[in-house]
Q: What sequence folds into this?
């Protein structure tokens, strides 16, 4: 597999452009350790995820798995001006036992923040 395959797999997960299970399997085919170019995560990626959750297209479990899969990846970086917000949101969404399960109300709050 080539470098571009890895970055495409990260992008596919970020954008949920395929079923989450398919995208996750493709990304997990690559080793965890990585040095090289990174895909940049933006508020738009979070907004897309939250809209799909609010529309009932994906469930809270997929949101948790999405955030958990992306949290602390070496092939993913954050848009600089939103780094703190994005890392905090990933942490919140990936830890429902600590932060509580994602509710429609919280998803709407985060969506407003993501689109700000």
A:
């Amino acid at each position: 597999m080539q470098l571009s395959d890895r970055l495409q797999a990260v992008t596919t997960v970020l954008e949920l452009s395929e079923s989450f299970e398919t995208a996750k399997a493709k990304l997990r085919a690559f080793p965890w350790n990585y040095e090289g170019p990174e895909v940049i995560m933006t508020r738009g990626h979070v907004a897309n995820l939250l809209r799909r959750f609010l529309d009932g297209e994906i469930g809270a479990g997929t949101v948790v798995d999405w955030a958990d899969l992306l949290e602390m990846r070496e092939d993913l970086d954050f848009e600089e001006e939103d780094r703190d917000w994005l890392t905090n949101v990933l942490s919140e969404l990936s830890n429902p036992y600590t932060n509580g399960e994602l509710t429609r109300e919280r998803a709407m709050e985060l969506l407003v923040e993501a689109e700000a």
Observations:
- The first strand starts at residue 39 and ends at 41.
- The two ends are 38 Å apart (CA to CA).
